[in-house]
Write a structure and sequence with these properties.
Elements (H helix, E strand, L loop, with lengths): L1 E7 L5 E6 L20 E8 L5 E2 L2 E2 H11 L2 E4 L11
Antiparallel strand pairs: 1-2, 1-3, 2-6, 4-5
C-alpha cells in the first residue's frame, strides 16, 4: 500500500497517514481525531506491506486504520543512547 505520511505542525512526533494522493482536507475525521493533526505538513510517500518491519511505523496497525477509517494516526519517538556497557 502506497501511503503519504504527514507530520503534525503542533507536535512533530505525531503523524497522519493516508492513501497516497489523498487530499487530507477532505478526509472524514472521527470525533476522537487528534486535534494536533488538524495542521499537518507532508513528510514523505512510502510503500508499506502487511507484516513489514519498519523503524517507528507499525505497518499492520497503519494499514488496519486506513482500511477502517480512511486514515491512520500514529506517534513516533526514537531514543538513541550512546555509551559503553559496564
Amino acid at each position: 500500500m502506497k501511503i503519504d505520511i504527514y507530520d503534525s505542525v503542533m507536535d512533530t512526533d505525531k503523524h497522519l497517514a493516508v492513501p497516497a494522493g489523498t487530499d487530507v482536507s477532505t478526509i472524514a475525521k472521527r470525533a476522537d481525531f487528534d486535534c494536533d493533526l488538524l495542521d499537518v505538513k507532508i513528510n514523505k510517500t512510502i510503500d508499506i506491506q502487511p507484516g513489514e518491519h519498519r523503524v517507528a511505523i507499525d505497518s499492520d496497525d497503519v494499514i488496519r486504520q486506513i482500511r477502517e477509517k480512511g486514515y491512520a494516526e500514529f506517534y513516533t519517538k526514537i531514543t538513541v543512547t550512546i555509551g559503553s556497557k559496564h
